[in-house]
Every structure is written in structure tokens, then in C-alpha cells.
Task: structure prediction
Amino acid sequence: MPHRLFQKAVATIFTVITLGYASVSGAHDAGATMDLNGTVATFTGYALVTCFDDGNGPTDNLVASVKDTSLPQDNLLVNLQIIKGNHAISTTDPVSGDGNFSPEVRVHGGNGVYQLLVNKTKEGARSFVVSYHCMTASNAHTGTDIVVQQFE
Result:
């Protein structure tokens, strides 16, 4: 049990550091490794992304994609979902380890809080990067904040 708590703490610290770096650098990419031991098929990362008018105009949508940076493994893929109000969409990186992001998806929900979820299709550790951007109707970046709620 103490070993499991240590692993959760390390994963959480890595996520916080990665997200902190992303916000300092101005990029909206964040990465981590899900399920370091590779034993939790239901592992889910859950974050809240807040979109707001930072002077570039009000948010029209949140756009995101996911890239599995692990070595390829059959039938083990990384998925991403965006939810706001009664709108939801998902995407999957179809080829792990190829260096390419999944197709972009977007939810047109305006300013406010969007739910962003990342999960995987079965047991196994998966490293990933999520690219997420709050956008105006004219495709300009606007204010974007993220807070991780769950990573287990």
C-alpha cells in the first residue's frame, strides 16, 4: 500500500510540474504517464479547462488532441474526451508511438469550464501528451487555464 501511494504521489507531482511548465512556456500541451505499473485498465485523468476572454475575444470552443508517446502495443490506445454542458466529443490516437497526434476535436461551448478526460483501452502504462487550446470564433487563442482533478 505505501508503494502505491508513493507511485500516485510521483504521478501527481509529474503532472503538476508538467502542467506548470506548460503554463509558463505559453504552450497548451501537457503530458504524463498513466498507470506506471500497468495494472489499472480503468485509469483516468480528469482535468478542468477554463476558457476566458483574455483580450483576444470571447471563447468559441475548446480544441484538443492526444498523442500516445509510448512504444506501440496492440490494442492499447489512448483516448481523450471533452465535455461541456450537454456537448461531448472524443478522439483516439490510432497509432501509439508514431509521433502523431490524434485527430483534433472541439466543443463549441463558449467561455467557461470544460471537462477534459484521458483514458486508455486496457491495462498497461501509457505516456501521452494532450494539446488543448481555447479558441475564439476567428481561431485566435484566448485565455486558457487547467486544473487536474484526478489522475488514477
